[in-house]
Structures are given as structure tokens and as C-alpha cells.
Design goal:
Two copies of one chain form a homodimer.
Chain A lengths: L7 H11 L16 H19 L3 H6 L3 E2 L4 E2 L2 H12 L18 H14 L1 H20 L2 H12 L3 E6 L15 E4 L5 E11 L8 E9 L10 E7 L1 E3 L5 E4 L2 E6 L10 E6 L6 E4 L6 H7 L1 H29 L22 H33 L3 H37 L10 H8 L9 H10 L8 H15 L4 H27 L5 H6 L1 H29 L4 H21 L3 H10 L3 H4 L6
Parallel strand pairs in A: 3-6
Antiparallel strand pairs in A: 1-2, 4-5, 5-11, 5-12, 6-7, 7-12, 8-9, 10-11
Helix pairs in contact in A: 1-10, 2-5, 4-6, 5-9, 5-10, 6-7, 9-10, 9-11, 9-12, 10-11, 10-17, 10-18, 11-12, 11-13, 11-14, 13-17, 14-15, 15-17, 15-18, 17-18, 17-19
Chain lengths: 600, 600
């Protein structure tokens, strides 16, 4: 089936009609690329995703990895897919030529990632985590560590993990207990337990490099005393080859509801006091190093949620066109033929909502990816500062909004399939289970709300907000047709209200209203992110209207009409839901703040 | 753990403080009962649910029934639980003494059902379906059929199913193809395929009586030509014992995402042209007979959704009190102790929302159950008519609202547990998977919306709505304290708006606006059911305020404060969400109606 994941027409629209990704080729870093090379890489990703990742997505779900006490086993298809991926050079796709990379923009890497994430998020996790860990090593580690690990990670001979969470502490990294004792040779001995470590054990690669947060005894309390270590599964011999088993053991596999193909592990470091770790960068800077990568990681989570949503959307769309049931007016007689269910209004509602959620989330996260590329390549330092401020501000939205609405899309896909959607004979239920992880990991959406309202808004003296508002206002002015102007006007009204809420929040955070405000932080995230996504949809609508004026062919015209329909749906159906949140925030509604534990 | 399912304090509140269930004992039908006998039955249900149903809920999920081509196997615990249930006489609980029943009110049977549904919805399905099928036979079948099947079903020696859906037709019963050819002996030969038949095959009982919708050749087209048949798995010998295998075969088990302990089957009737079926009642009246039971069945689905939601709510509540993570103001220093997560405002929000959803859904469906009891026992025929009209009108709400919000509650329970909630080591993810069935079966929620807006509102010349509004208005007047009056006033405002929407809908349904109105029917269902559930919460708040004035003990006072908090949460946080729906309906927003299939 052509276009069974993300239609190329859609990807082309986002990259070249909305985001102007081709402009990146004018930057020195990307000067050897052009639209043709971009598309060739996406072609390769699409083909690999469809041929090697998609076919075993459900098989891996049904046959999750097992641990016999010594070794983790999984179906062979995962290794086959992983090997082809790494041999194609994708892990290093974004890295410098001098690292053996392809020096591709993050935006193009994420365009590719979309196909893998829609096809098989579980198998995709192994190389993606490796690239993320390699990125930390590249930017923060000493040459010695880089020499030991980087090129082998970029080739996929070694894989990587991020080992942050501990059983007792969860999201509260201040409370981690894993410790790292300095040794005479400059290395450290690591001791502690980590949990929910994705890709923490498997036989896909020759070695696994865990990036472990731990505390060096005597350091500051809380987050200020966290350091970052590279802890390999196998220590390297003098030739840099993995040899002796390091004292990192798999305490057990965790059995998840979804994402079952990815091993989720409980790891024990230093059970025999012989776990060698190597400090990355300076002591006590571990969290800062991790957070250098956090914007990108959080965009990745949101984007993945949109892509899993997209898979379900496309499947339910095909189903709705194909499946006949009931009658559509005016042919309502028993002897009339049953009609494809897409002709039932409520089914179209569920399809249009999915389109609005998934293409909205996709466009949002590709926008975020472009900001990362611009940040990396912009030569004007003032502009770079602006981009950085905007990126920081929007990161909670990139993470939280699609990870809330991607699963909602999957829920609607199940509903369209009805009883069939509830069975494991169809793929939509797995999409829904897989996607449920995304509101949880990389900072729960509750934490994102606090991060936005309590911190990000006010960072850099609130300049990120100024940048955002300038950009939104510019697109509001770019709405030239009556349809787009109607949308722009609605968004304007909500933006004015949002401005008032932010002003009020600035005052309340310093008063005794702080508690109720932060308790209701999710309402603020709703208002803020719905405005942002409405803007993302207005941008798409503006492009579509302009394209329609140029009298495109029939298929393109339908495509652009679909964009307008989804934009109108979003701004007329989804944005007004935040009226509730606005009222909650304005009235400082105290129900959740006041309710006492004993009342439950 | 005491009260691990539904706290008895909560059940007592609903039954005896809100619904005045004890008043039913004044009716002749229930005159042998009193609060003590009611509570004794609930005690028994609670104990049985906790001891025999709850322990194997996760085990049955992990070890779903299998079919070896001849026989369906499942874990032994299911039969043990089923046998104890049937031996306790619960299947016949609501039936007449003369049928061997306990002649208990539906309200009390549903109070009991709550414990089973929260503990283990899958194993509960077998006896519940049997009682429902027996109910149809009792009310619609000839004495011959009753004599053959009824008492054996009520004892659980035989079980029952409802075989409506066919693979090609889904919800469109007009299009079923299963046919029934009359035979000289008065029986019929059934031929056709059914799908998603719960409990369609197993070894729990000596026989399975399928209630099958089929068409007698030569009958009217569409739904008017549907008849109902009793089709046993084994035909009975002259002594009424199951003997020869009837020609009903299991084409296969369906593998569901949740509810895995209940066999879901594809059944073939008459593969060898020898499937004997027995007409229930008159020919071509099959759908009417099924719909006689539909109000009760749909309340059952909604109630089950609320109860599965409740299980997750209680679990996440205990978790939130127990699990420490992060700090709460003013003790924010690293050296301060971590705090139970219930002290984080956003966690309390997620708990309060769950409480509002689940206790709202529970109260709503127990209210519906009381209507059924009143309908059965009211002697004044005018009053009986009113009750019947109200019951018809509210049935789509009883079914759809809790089946939308129960899963939402389960989603929040997962979020509170975070990473742990996403694993199969904790029960909340199973609750979420199990509950996802409820918006689909017994008429999808999209169908409920159409049923309400297109049919139920206008039935009986709209008198159901009059009855509802009188009752709501009465409770609005009963709001005597400032807190309740504030809630009542808000609800009043929405009711006025709802009245306007209904007036408009009456006009639009007869105009060219019909299509856009029905496409947006889900918005109407949202407005209508949110008003109804707000009323249900106002009723609870009124009771709580009155009780608080009587200065109850500390634990009771906390309980009533919790009721007020949840009522305020619901009316301040959930009801205003329908502002969006009101706008959609008022403006006849055309996005979903206008979007063309080729735009997707």
C-alpha cells in the first residue's frame, strides 16, 4: 500500500511549503545538501520503515523480549531492522562529516524519523536512543571518552541509553542515590539502581553505553550535586574493544502495556562494587548536560506521539472509505446499498479531529526541529538568542500537546473501527497502547505544565514570549483571504486573553495565590498550547489558501481544501475548549487546591 | 485491604441518602425486603467479588481463553467464581420468587454488580449475560421455551448470549442476513454468521442458549423483518437435558485488547443445515423484544464503565497517599523529606476529576436503576408513564456518559502512577484497556448521540424532557446553602441554553439543517449529558450539605466535604467545557458536515 505511513504529499507540504526547509541549504553547514538530497534520504527512510520496521511491529508486540537470567532474547526482525538502519548511516545522520555523519538538518532527520516512529516506535527506540546518547558525548565529554565511544555509537556497533530515573525518586532527580566514588586512575565506581531504562539490555550491539546520573560523595545536595557518567556494559580493552563485563546487571525486564518491543529495564550498578564509570565533563554538571539535549528529546517525544497518532489516523481513514454500514441520506431505504461509513457525519468528525491533532502535532514538532537547525546555523547572535529563547519557551508545548492529542487521535481511530478496533486483529489498538507512554516519559505532562508556567515563561526576562508573539502576529497579518482572516481573528481574541492571564500569573506567582495557580497549571498549558497549535494551523491555512489561488490540479486542490477544513475544525472546535481553562485561571478556581486528602 | 473496590460508605450514601432505595420496600413487590436484607446481599457480593473475582482478574487477562479446534479452555478460577456466584442465587436475584429468584430491586442488584464489575468485568460477563438473556425469555417467550430454558439459566446450569451483530453489518441490524426457515414441527433452521458474541463458547455451563436475531424468509425488509430465536448449543432430550450438539460452531475466538477473560466469538449457525432454533414470541418482533431489555443493558454498560473507572480511582488514590516524590511548599529544600504525591496540586486535580467522573457515573446509573424499579412497581399509571418516558430519554446518557468518562478516569489513574502505571505490574493499565470496550458495545456513543437527538428527545411528544426538567428544577430549588445555590445557579444557566438548543433542533431537524445538526450530534450529547450529570452532582451536594448541618462525626464530615468538592469540581471544571458544544450547535458549524472524503 502506497503512503501507508505518512503521505509524502503531507511531508512535502510541511517541509517545503510551510517550513521552507530548503532555505537551510543556504547555510554553510548544509551547503552540500539540496531538496533532492533531502528527498533521497526521506525516500530511503520511508522504504526502510515500510519494509523492515512496519512488518514486525505487531509481532514484536505479541512476542516481547524475554530474560532467562543471563541473556535478553527478542525476535530476529529487530536486529535485522536495526542493522540495516545503522548500516545506512542514519544514526549519524545529523552529526558532522568529521564524525562520519551526513550533516543533515534535524528537520530532515525528523522527517525521516516520522516514518520509523509511525511504522514501529519500539524498534526505532534503539537507534534513536543511541543517537541521543552519542550527542551528549559529542558535546560534553572529554576527547578520551569521545575516542572510546563516539564513532562506535554512531556506527551502531555500540548502543546507548539514558539512565536517569531511580525507583524511589521517579521524576524527582534531586533525590537520586546512585553514587560515584572517584578512583586513583581518574575513573569512578558507580553504585545504585535505575529503573525504566529503555534499551538497557539486549544483544543488538557489541556494547551498551549507559549515560548515568549519579552523585559524587561530598557534592552539593539536590540537583546541584548530580554528575553524569558513561558506564559501558563491557569495559574496553587496550584496543578499544569491548571485553570484560562491567558490573552492570539486569535486575529485570519491566512489562509494559505498550512499546513492548523496546526492553524497559531495571538495572543494578555496582552490585559487586566493580562498576567502572567515566565522568562526562565537569563534576556536578550532569543535569545541565542532560538538559542540553532535553529540548530535542522532548520534541522527539511529542513528534513520536503525533506519528503514532498519524498511523492510526491513516488506518481508520482507509477503513472508513472501505467499510460499508448503514445508509446515508437520501438513500435510506433497506433496499438501498449500505454506504461507506465515511459518509456518516460523526465518522467524518472523528477523522477531521485526528487530522487536526496529528498534522497539527507534526507541523508543530517539525517547526521545533527547524528552530534547532536555525539555532545551530544562524550567524547573527541576536537572532540566535531569539531562537534559543523561543525554543526554550515552546519545548513544554512540543512535548505535552502532541503527547496528549496523539493518543486522543488513536482513541478516535479505535472508535471508527468499532468492535474491530478493539481487537488485536487490527493495528489501531496497539497504536493506542504504544502512544500512552508519551504523556508520561521525558517529564510527565503535569511537569511540563509546571515547567511552562513556573519557569519557561519568565526565563530570559520573558523574551521568549515576545519572540513568539511577534511571529504569531506576523502570521495573523499574513491571513489575506476571508477564510483565513476569520481564523486569524478568532486566534487574536484568544491571544489577548492569554496575555492577560500571563500578566496575572506574574503577579500571582509572587503572592499567596501561587499555590492555586500552580495547582491549576494544566489549565494554563491548555490555553497556551491551544493558541500555539491554532497558530500552527493558521500558518498551514495561509499556505493552502495561497496555493489554491494559483489554481492547482484537482488532487492538490483537494489536499489544500483538507488543510483549510482541518484548520477551521481546530480553531472552531478545539480552541474554544480552553474557555473553560481561562475561566478557571481568571477565577482562581480553588477546588483542586483546597480538597484535602481525607476528603477522597 | 478493606474497601479496595467501592467503599461501603459510598454505596450507602448513594442508596440510602441520595436515592432513598429503602422506600422501595414499601412496594408490594419488595415488601419482604428491608435495608438489612439489602445490605446482607451487598455484603455477600462484596465478599465474593473480593475473594473470588478480584484475585484472578489480572491472571485471566494474561491467560486468555484458547480454542484448540474442539474446545475452549480457560483458567480454572473463572469456573470457580462462576459456580459460587450461581450457587449463591445471584443470577436470579432480580427475578420473581416464583421463578426461584430473590425479587430484589434492580438498584440493589446493581449495587452488588458494582463490586463484581470493579473486581473483574470479564468473569462477571458470563452470569450477567445469562441473566439478561433469561430476562428476555421470561418476558417474551412461550411457556414451552420458558420451561425448557428459564430455570436452568437462572440456576446457571445453562448460560446465555445475545447474538445480534454480523460481520458485514455491524451496528446496522437492518442488514443482517442470518435466516430462519420454518419447519413442520414449529421449529426453525438457522443459518448465518455472528461476530463479537460474548460468552459464545466455553465450558462453564452444561449448555449455552444463544438469543439470535434472524430473518424469516418472506418477511418485511430492514429492521421490520427481524425475528428472535433461542438457539441452544446442545439440543435438549425428552427430559430437558442437553444432549445432541446443535449445529452452532465456533468459527474462532476474537482477540481483544481488554476484557480478555470473556470469550468473544465468531459463531457459525447451520453450517450443516441442521441448526435448530425456536422462535421467541411473534415473528418479526425480534428487535422490539431486544429493545425491551435495552434500557437496562445500556445502564449496565454505563455502570460497568463507572465501576472499572472506580477501581482505578481507588488504586491511584492509595498510591498517591503512599508514594513520596518531590517536595511540597513550604518544605522545598533537598534535605526536607519527600512528600506523598497527593500533596501535589495536579495530582489532586487528577484524583478529584476521577472522583467526579466515577461517583457521578455511579450515581447516574443507580438513579437509572431506580427508575426501572419504580417503573416495575408504581401503581399509578400516569406516574408509570412519566417514569417510562424519563427512562427512555435518559438511556443514551446512562450508556454514553460514563462510558466516555470512566475510561478518562482510568487514563488519569495511569498518569498518577506515572511509569509504574504504564506497566502490567500494576492494575490500572488493565482497567484502562478493559474499559475501552464500553464506548463501543451496546451501541457506540456516536449512535447514542443520534438516538438522543434524532429520536429520544421527541418520543412521547417530548414529555420525557418535561419530566426531566421538573425533576431538575425541583433539586435546584432544594439547594438551600450558599455553596449549593452557587452550583444550582450555574446549572440553571446551562439548562436555559439547553432549552434553546432543543427548540432550535426541533426546527432544524425538519429543514435543510438536518444534516449538519446530526453530524454534530455528539456536541448535543455533550451538552445534554453534562447538564444531567451536573444535576446528579447537585443532588449529591444537596444531601451532603444537609448532612453537614447535622454536625456529623469527623469521618462523615470529611466524606460530605468530599462530595461538595467533587460537585464543585464537576460544575466548575467539566460543565463549562460544553460552552464549545453550545457554540458549535448555535452556529451550525459546518466543518465536519462539509469536509469531503477526498480532502483527507
Amino acid at each position: 500500500m502506497a503512503d501507508q505511513l505518512i503521505p509524502r504529499r503531507e511531508m512535502q507540504f510541511q517541509l517545503y511549503e510551510v517550513l521552507n526547509t530548503q532555505a537551510l541549504c543556504e547555510k554553510a553547514r548544509f551547503e552540500e545538501h539540496n531538496v533532492e538530497t533531502f528527498n533521497a534520504v526521506i525516500d530511503m527512510a520511508e522504504k526502510m520503515a515500510e519494509e523492515l520496521f512496519l512488518p514486525h511491529n505487531a509481532i514484536a508486540d505479541k512476542n516481547e523480549p524475554t530474560f532467562d537470567g543471563t541473556k535478553v532474547s527478542m525476535i530476529d526482525d529487530v536486529k535485522k531492522a536495526f542493522d540495516t538502519y545503522r548500516e545506512s548511516g542514519f544514526i549519524a545522520g545529523h552529526f558532522d562529516y568529521e564524525d562520519g555523519g551526513m550533516q543533515l538538518p534535524v528537520t530532515i532527520m525528523n522527517a525521516c524519523a516520522g516514518y520509523f516512529l509511525a511504522a514501529n516506535p519500539s524498534s526505532t527506540a534503539y537507534p534513536f536512543l543511541t543517537a541521543a546518547a552519542a550527542n551528549v558525548i559529542k558535546h560534553c565529554a572529554s576527547d578520551e571518552i569521545k575516542n572510546a565511544f563516539l564513532s562506535k555509537m554512531l556506527s551502531g556497533d555500540f548502543t546507548g541509553t539514558m539512565a536517569l530515573t531511580e525507583p524511589h525518586a521517579g521524576s524527582s532527580l534531586a533525590d537520586i542515590r546512585t553514587n560515584a566514588k572517584p578512583q586513583a586512575d581518574g575513573s569512578y565506581r558507580i553504585k545504585g539502581s535505575k529503573i525504566y531504562i529503555s534499551g538497557g539490555e539486549h544483544e543488538l550491539s557489541d556494547n551498551i553505553v549507559h549515560l548515568v546520573l549519579a552523585k559524587i560523595p561530598g557534592g552539593p545536595a539536590g540537583v546541584k550535586g548530580i554528575s553524569l557518567f558513561a558506564v559501558p556494559k563491557y569495559r574496553l580493552d587496550d584496543n578499544g574493544e569491548p571485553k570484560e563485563r562491567n558490573d552492570v546487571t539486569l535486575a529485570g525486564l519491566i512489562h509494559k502495556m505498550g512499546y513492548r518491543g523496546t526492553t524497559s529495564t531495571a538495572l543494578t550498578f555496582g552490585e559487586n562494587d566493580d562498576c567502572h564509570g567515566y565522568l562526562i565533563g565537569e563534576p556536578h554538571q550532569g543535569l545541565r548536560y542532560m538538559f542540553l539535549m532535553m529540548n530535542e528529546a522532548r520534541i522527539g517525544v511529542g513528534y513520536g506521539a503525533a506519528m503514532i497518532g498519524y498511523r492510526g489516523y491513516r488506518y481508520s481513514l482507509e477503513y472508513a472509505k472501505d467499510r460499508t454500514q448503514g445508509r446515508a441520506a437520501p438513500n435510506l431505504a433497506p433496499e438501498d446499498d449500505p454506504t461507506p461509513i465515511i459518509n456518516h457525519g460523526d465518522v467524518r468528525r472523528m477523522l477531521l479531529a485526528q487530522k487536526a491533532y496529528c498534522e497539527g502535532g507534526m507541523s508543530l514538532c517539525l517547526y521545533g526541529s527547524t528552530l534547532i537547525d536555525e539555532l545551530e546555523t544562524e550567524e547573527d547572535s541576536d537572532k540566535r538568542t531569539e531562537i534559543s529563547q523561543l525554543l526554550d519557551l515552546l519545548t513544554p508545548v512540543f512535548k505535552a500537546w502532541p503527547s496528549e492529542f496523539g493518543p486522543k487521535a488513536n482513541d478516535l481511530a479505535i472508535q471508527i473501527l468499532g468492535g474491530a478496533g478493539y481487537t488485536r486483529e487490527y493495528p489501531v489498538e496497539q497504536c493506542w497502547r504504544d502512544n500512552r507512554l508519551n504523556p508520561i516519559h521525558e517529564g510527565t505532562n503535569g511537569i511540563q505544565a509546571l515547567d511552562l508556567l513556573g519557569r519557561k515563561l519568565w526565563q530570559h526576562q520573558g523574551k521568549g514570549l515576545d519572540v513568539l508573539l511577534r511571529r504569531v502576529t506576523s502570521d495573523i497579518h499574513n491571513a489575506k483571504t476571508p477564510r483565513c482572516q476569520t481564523l486569524a481573528k478568532k486566534l487574536s481574541g484568544y491571544l489577548d486573553t492569554l496575555g492577560g492571564l500571563i500578566e496575572q500569573a506574574g503577579v500571582d506567582l509572587k503572592s499567596d495565590k501561587q499555590s492555586v495557580l500552580l495547582t491549576n497549571a494544566s489549565c494554563f498549558l491548555n490555553v497556551f498550547s491551544s493558541c500555539v497549535v491554532s497558530w500552527i494551523w493558521l500558518r498551514q491555512a495561509n499556505v493552502a489558501e495561497l496555493a489554491l489561488q494559483a489554481t492547482p490540479g484537482e488532487m492538490d486542490a483537494d489536499f489544500y481544501q483538507g488543510k483549510l477544513a482541518a484548520a477551521e475544525y481546530f480553531i472552531n472546535w478545539e480552541l474554544p475548549l480552553v474557555t473553560r481553562d481561562i475561566e478557571i485561571l481568571k477565577s482562581q478556581e480553588p477546588s483542586c487546591d483546597n480538597v484535602k486528602p481525607q476528603y477522597f
